[in-house]
Amino acid sequence: MNESIPVIRDVDQGTARLLPDVDRDRAWLLTVDGAPQSYVDLDAPDHLEFEYAQRLAHVVECAAAPGTPLDVLHLGGGALTLPRYVAAARPGSRQDVAEADLGLLALVAEHLPVPDGSGITVHGTDARSRLEQTPPGSVDVLIADVFGGSRVPAHLTTVEYAQAARRALRDGGIYAANLADGAPFRFLRSQLATFAAVFDELALIAEPAVLRGRRFGNVVLVASRSPIDTATLTRRCAADAFPARVEHGTSLDRLVKAARPVRDGEAVASPEPPDGAFSIG
Fold this sequence. Notes:
Elements: E1 7-11, E2 14-20, E3 27-32, E4 35-41, H1 51-61, E5 71-75, H2 81-89, E6 94-98, H3 102-111, E7 120-123, H4 127-133, E8 139-144, H5 159-168, E9 169-181, H6 186-196, E10 201-206, H7 208-211, E11 217-224, H8 230-238, E12 245-248, H9 250-256
Parallel strand pairs: 5-6, 5-8, 6-7, 8-9
Antiparallel strand pairs: 1-2, 2-3, 3-4, 9-11, 10-11, 10-12
Helix pairs in contact: 1-2
């Protein structure tokens, strides 16, 4: 049983709390202003507590043969859940992480340090700035999980941002973003239209209740210049404890409807979640 003491600290984006999991030794939940941000088990980095993190991991596993090292760029760091997962599942991977909240980085480095030799390099910088500095064609997988509070920042939702992501990816590389929305999906539709303007292939992963508009929730957007292995992705997501659907092709076209791509000059952040959608108090 984890008998560690909670850690509370003011960081750049609010009040961060590291809360020990009473059921797992050396496992922690990170929240900022009450909103869950990350869950990390230091002894079992392959344990992914959050459903959206499991889905992002499925995208990683569809990117290359099992165990093959990857070059991964993470936009948004939190407690470095996905970088730790990739380091454990694919030893020898080279990973860069961009996290703008320097106070949060210091908290994580002090209490949840990554092992030496992990191949994870953390940069205290804005996500888009780091993306635009990334050498063209140098990334196998690009994972975006950036929230200012509970909203995706506006400058990470545009055609220009998607173009920067495409430049950074190798041929066959995959982009995956954790987003959040609910019916009538104005934000999600605009994101699909935006990425369809830049990438040839798109897919969407979400629980059926979210896609049916019954509740606000996380959605994973997947994009690539090359065909996405949606069959394998579908099998993996269907086998989860909370199964998700993978939408692609004509079903995505129907979802987009009349939405149009978003440019830098008109972008807005993703919608504020309804009260209680993610908060744990």
